[in-house]
Design a protein that fits this description.
Elements: H1 9-36, H2 41-59, H3 65-115
Length: 117
Amino acid sequence: MTDASLASRSDIASLGTWLKDLEECRHEISRITLRDFPTALAILVTTWNRDDETFILLATQKLAWGKAIMAIRASHAEMLNALAHQAQQSAQQASAERQAELSRRIALFTALTNLAP
C-alpha cells in the first residue's frame, strides 16, 4: 500500500512538467530583476534553490506533501523578509545620498553668497 501523503507517479510527472514551466518564469524574473534590482537576484536564486531541493525530496518520496508545502511557504516568507529588508536599505541609502547632495548644494550656495559683496 502506498502512502497518500507522498507524491504519486502521476504527481511526480505533473511536478516535472510544472517545473519546466516554472523555469521559464524564473528566467524572465531573473532578467527583469537583474535589470531593475540586481542585488535582489541572489535572494531569489537562494530561494529557488531551496524550493528545488524541496521538489527533489518530494519527487523522490523522501518528503510528504504537507511538509513540502510548509517548507516552500517558509522559504518564501524568508525571501519576502529578505527582499523587504533589502528594499528598506536601498531606500535609506537613496535618502542619505539625496540628503548629502542637498547639503553640498547648500554649502555651495552659502559659499557663493559669502563671496558676494
